[in-house]
Amino acid sequence: MSSQDAAPGDGTPNAQPSSSTASSIKSFISGGFGGVSAVLVGHPFDLTKTRLQTAGPGVYTGAVDVVKKTLARDGVSGMYRGIVPPLLGVTPIFAVSFWGYDLGQKLIFRFTPTRESKKLSTSEYAVAGFISAVPQTLVAAPVERAKVLLQVQGQGGNEQKYKGVIDVVRVLYKEGGIRSIYRGSFATLARDGPGSAAYFAAYEVTKKALTPAGSSPSDLNLGAVIFAGGMAGVAMWSIAIPPDVLKSRLQSAPNGTYSGFLDCARKTIAADGVTALWKGFGPAMARAFPANAATFLGVEASRKLLDKYI
Prior knowledge:
By secondary structure, this protein is mainly alpha-helical.
């Protein structure tokens, strides 16, 4: 977000900036650029993570083996398989996420009218972050479902069932309607709720730590904001992997494999042990900093251009 927007940033409600139509449009567009930047940088890591999480025993020996086999079979373009769904979904996902974060902050202020401080505490930032994940899930869950199915097809010699993202949606709807498209929604919220809480809290804490005495976080240079964004990504993925593993398995498994989130957790642990819940941790953490640094770089750079010309 731009330093001209209060969320995330200075701990005060984003009342006037968010009420401006022009500012809302700029935030939406710059958030989309940030999301596109994150996908372009982070997708190969994400594909590696997802394939590790969903492959059967013995298919891969580790993250490097996933990359080697993918490149050997499909070339460099294979590392970007399944990229269309997140590219199509990043604009609304990021827009809704940051809108939800702003809403969460406003709700906290509304329900604490007698508070003495006009700034939120770290725990309150975390609560606002968790709130942001609720509306975000409505957009993110079907995008994640399509992305996962495209990422995992072809591994282990499986058939190429889907021709592209539109074909995924068409087949899923034919097989089970809207419910099939939204499979894994609870798992998505279980990942993004705590993850977003850690993400936004870490972002605010890092910005505060980098702010010189007597200055405001809104005065930080671009490098500091990028670093804060990268650290926010690391904080999120340090706790989000277990529900992400279950989400990937739920969304990629044939119909009837799991009855729900808890059943997936039980069967995963029974079959592969507790350590299975941490599959893909390496690629996720390798992706976390550069992808989220790219996010904030895209947001800030595009917002400055928009402010200059619009």
